[in-house]
Amino acid sequence: MVWLGSWQLTRAAQKRQLLDQMHQRGQVELSLQDLLVKEDRYGYQLSMEGGFAPGVTLFLDNQVYQGRPGYQVLRPMVTAQGLLLVDLGWLPQGQDRQVIPAVSQPAGEYRVRGRVARPYHPPLHLGNAEEEWPHRLQTIDTPWLAKQWHQPVLPFVLVLEEGGAWPELIHRQPEMPMAPSRHIGYAVQWFVMALTLTGLTAWWWRKTTHEVEAEHVHREKEAK
C-alpha cells in the first residue's frame, strides 16, 4: 500500500511535468516543415494556409460533450507533404443516427491555427467500417486513410482554436485522463489504508500477546 501511494505521487509529479510541458509548447508556433522533423511534436502551435480537399468531411463517432453524443468533425487540408487532418470542432448528433449532420463547406483557402494533437484512438475498437466510409469513423487511423485516399496523410491532427468559418461547431478544450490532484487523492487513500492496517496489526499483536501472557499465568497458577 505504501508502494502504491508512492507510485501515485510519482504519477502526479509526471502529470504536473506534462502539463507544464504542454503549456510551454502551446506558446511556441512552428512551421509544418519544422514540425515534421520533430519526434515529439504534440502540443505545439501550427499556423498555415491552404485549401481543403473538396467534398470530404469526416465525422469521428462516439464523442460525448456535456452528456450529449456527437462527432468531432475533421477535414483534410492539402499540403505539399500530404493531407493534414484538421479538427474543426464538435457537432451534436441528430435525432436520427442514420442521418449525418450537415456542416458548411466554404470554398477557397483558409489560414488555420491550432494545436497539434495525436490522432484519436479509442481503447477498444474494431477499426473503421467500410460501409460507413467516407463519413463516419470510429478511430483516426492515418495509414488506413492514406489507403482510402491513395495519397499520404500526415500522422497528426491539427485541432483548431476558437473561431473560424464554422460557427455551428463547438471547440472543446483538451482533456487530461486524470489530473495530478486525482493521483494525490489516491495516494492519500493508500497511505491511510496502510496506517489503518498498521494500527490493526499492532492492536492484534498486543491483544494476542496479552492473551498468551494471561494463559501462561493461568497455567502457572494451576500448576501450583
TrEMBL record:
One of its GO terms (cellular component) is plasma membrane. The chain crosses the membrane at residues 184-205. Its main location: membrane. It holds the Pfam family SURF1. It is a multi-pass membrane protein. Keywords: Cell membrane, Membrane, Transmembrane, Transmembrane helix. It comes from the Bacteria. CDD domains: SURF1. It is found in: Cell membrane; Membrane. PANTHER family: SURFEIT LOCUS PROTEIN (PTHR23427), SURFEIT LOCUS PROTEIN 1 (PTHR23427:SF2). Belongs to the SURF1 family. This is SURF1-like protein. It comes from Aeromonas molluscorum 848.
